[in-house]
Specification:
The protein is mostly helical. The protein has a domain at 66-92. The protein has helices at residues 3-7, 9-16, 47-60, 65-83. It is extended and about 50 Å long.
């Protein structure tokens, strides 16, 4: 283990102390998830937007597309929370990676 990362444990654990639920304004639905209750939203981005995301935005922030998409997800979730009267200003995401990852 990296001692510098271990030294940060108390800080990061403290960040979670008062964390809100992902969708805090709703009570938990105790009914089972079934095909009958499934809802789906599909969006298609125009080629110009996709090209901009893959090339210009990623290059401008020295990031990969996964970083850009994750940032967009967090920003849209926080905007949704603000519109639904929550005061949360952060979002905890547990990421899992597969395969080799280069550090850059």
């Amino acid at each position: 283990m990296n001692p510098a990362r271990t030294a940060e444990l108390a800080y990061w654990t403290g960040m979670l102390k008062n964390a809100e639920q992902f969708v805090p304004s709703r009570e938990k639905d105790r009914s089972p998830d079934t095909v009958g209750t499934l809802r789906q939203l599909s969006l298609t981005l125009p080629a110009a937007v996709t090209t901009s995301l893959l090339n210009r935005v990623a290059a401008a922030f020295h990031a990969r597309i996964n970083d850009i998409l994750l940032t967009a997800f967090v920003l849209s979730t926080l905007q949704w929370r603000r519109l639904n009267s929550t005061k949360a200003t952060s979002l905890l995401i547990d990421l899992e990676g597969h395969g080799p990852r280069r550090n850059s």
